[in-house]
Design a protein that fits this description.
The protein has one domain: MetI-like (MetI-like fold, Orthogonal Bundle). It is elongated. The chain has 233 residues and is mainly alpha-helical. 78% of the residues lie in helices and 0% in strands.
């Protein structure tokens, strides 16, 4: 029994998990899984974030676009993760495209929702001043609205990155032969709980590293703010 509560096959001791990780590393499997999963997250997160910024700016700044697009996007946001997977497999096949698309969907909505909320919270006086200087709507969006909503956008990017890691695991459950998500399902089928914990620990570490990088970027870009969060520790 581990700690007198769980059997080793249910909750393996840390030493056994470490040995499993070393074994995977020596065989080159762990490096391969990490590289493939990270690439899928990076590509999906980039695609989802770009589309979120574009659509978020359009629907947040132009009321007609909001009336046309917002109801549909909010309805799509409620669709469960697993519901997208079979549809994407049907549309895009079983290669990399559906996996990256699913990660992009996961990253899209947190970025989009936070950006739209940030744009809606921009001080109306800033827009009025910009119009006094005869700036076009596009210039106002680029030079006034997006900078003013930057804190919300960065928060959305952090949430989107977290969702990207969640969605990549789901994506790798379907039709994948490599990646940390595949390692989880394969370990379940072979009842190798130690390998499952290796994948879980690596995913947790990678997610934390991603969030830490984005937090550093956030602090640097928002260093001009005099807020509680910007106070030195």
């Amino acid at each position: 029994m581990s700690a007198g509560i769980f059997d080793p096959y249910q909750l393996p001791p840390p030493l056994l998990v470490a040995e499993a990780a070393v074994s995977l590393w020596r065989r080159g499997l762990l490096q391969s899984d990490i590289a493939i999963t990270c690439l899928r997250v990076l590509e999906g997160f980039a695609i989802g974030s770009v589309f979120a910024v574009l659509l978020g700016t359009v629907t947040g700044f132009w009321r007609r676009a909001e009336e046309a697009l917002e109801p549909t996007l909010q309805a799509l946001r409620t669709v469960p993760t697993l519901a997208w997977a079979p549809l994407l497999l049907l549309w895009l096949g079983i290669d990399e495209a559906p996996k990256i698309a699913l990660v992009a969907i996961g990253a899209f909505f947190p970025v989009y929702v936070n950006l739209v909320a940030g744009i809606k919270g921009v001080d109306r006086k800033l827009i009025e001043v910009a119009r006094v200087y005869n700036l076009s709507d596009l210039q106002i969006a680029r030079r006034v609205v997006l900078p003013a909503s930057l804190p919300d956008l960065l928060t959305g990017l952090r949430l989107g990155a977290t969702q990207a890691w969640l969605f990549v695991v789901v994506a790798e459950f379907f039709g994948s032969t490599q990646g940390l998500g595949f390692r989880l399902t394969d370990s379940q089928l072979t009842t190798r709980v130690d390998l499952m914990f290796v994948a879980l620990v690596v995913l947790a570490i990678l997610g934390k590293i991603t969030d830490s990088i984005l937090r550093v970027v956030e602090r640097r870009l928002l260093s001009w703010r005099d807020t509680l969060g910007q106070m030195p520790s």
